[in-house]
Every structure is written in C-alpha cells, then in structure tokens.
Amino acid sequence: MPIYSSDSDDLRPSSSAPLRRFFTHEKPMHAILGGGKVADILLWRDRTLTASILMGFTIIWSLFEVMEYNFVTLLCHISMILMLILFIWSMGAGFVDWSPPDFRAIMISDSTFRWLCGKFNSILVKIYEISSGKDLRTFFLAITFLWILSVIGNYFSSLNLLYLGFMCLATLPALYERYQNEVDYLVSQGNQDMKKLYKKFDTEVLNKIPRGPVKQRKKY
Questions:
Q1: Number of domains in the chain
Q2: Which residues, in sequence order, are bridge partners of residue 13?
Q3: d(Cα 145, Cα 161) in Å, to the nearest integer?
Q4: Are 146 and 76 contained in the same domain?
Q5: What is the spatial distance between Cα 151 and Cα 145, in angstroms, rounded to a whole number?
Q6: Rounded Cα gap, residues 12 and 181, in angstroms
Q7: pLDDT grade, residue 7 (50/70/90)?
Q8: Structural domain boundaries, residue 175
C-alpha cells in the first residue's frame, strides 16, 4: 500500500512503498482496452474524433430525450434532408463546375459488415465460455452484473442507459489513466476499510449469535 506524506493534499504516493494496482496485471490502460482504434478513442488519443463522437451521441440523446423526437420522424427528416442535398448537388453540377455526387463514396463497405459480424460472434463465444461452467466465479459475477443492470433499467429508459454507459466509457478510462496512482490508493484504502468493517461485524454480531450443539453422526 502506498505511503502518503502528511503535508501533501494532492494524494500523491511516495516512492518508498510499492503501489498496488487496481488491475492485477501491470499492462497499460491502452493495452487493457485492446490497443486499437477503440482504445485511442476511449483514451482521447485523438481528441478531435473522440469529441466529435461524444458530441454526436449528445445531439442524438438531446433529440430523443429533450426534444422528444420520434425515431421514425427523425429518420424521415434526415432522409429528406439528405435527398434534398443530393438533388441540389446533382442539379447544380450541370450549371456550376461541380462533379456530380459519387454514390460509391457513401456506400458501406463489406469489411465494415465483416467487422461487425466478427465482433458479434466474439461476444457469442464469450457468453458461451462463461456459461459453460468452467469458471464458476466469472459465471456468478456475470449473472449478478446482469441482474443489477436489469434493476437499474427499471429506473432509466434504454436511451438514457445507453447514453450513460457511453459517457462512462468515454470519460472513466481516460480519467483512470491520468489519475491511476490516486485511484489505486483510494481503492486499496476502501478494500482495507471494508475488511475491517466485516471483521468488526463478525466479532461483535456474528460470533455472539447462539449456536446449538453440533450433532454428530452415528457410526454404524
């Protein structure tokens, strides 16, 4: 556990004691998140792209939750605006020195669908591995997490829950990477406090509960 100096208010650990990491392995946060483009986005390595995605999700959330837009209405309005832009572009190309719109530029490539299918298949494989019973601890943790998520879902709409989850993904990993030592220290302190609290509860409450004599089995 790290040792902190008493005259410091910024919770910076001293170098005299090893720091116990929140994650058991010593991999950097970028490697834990996969080390690809997704990790760069979540850790704000490309601030322009991350800010654009965050702004896009915020606009979508505002349209549905704040302005109470209907999904079908929004989809129709976006389609009409896109068709009007393409119509003006195509008609104006004959009068102005413009190149007509290329339909192939807005087509979704096959590699994108293959990537999405690969991610979906990897999720199915992970669910199968957890449900196979090889690791009971992971299985019960997954069941508990899904149950807690279902309880939380009763108090939030699906869009609010997705937006909250995205905001956590877009902020918490970057904050942890920046303040890793401070977070690890607080988690370690909280873990020790919980152990002390349970030990006190076990000593003062559980051990004082009267227990009947243990019946011994008859040996034949």
A1: 3
A2: 4
A3: 15
A4: yes
A5: 10
A6: 7
A7: very low
A8: 157-203
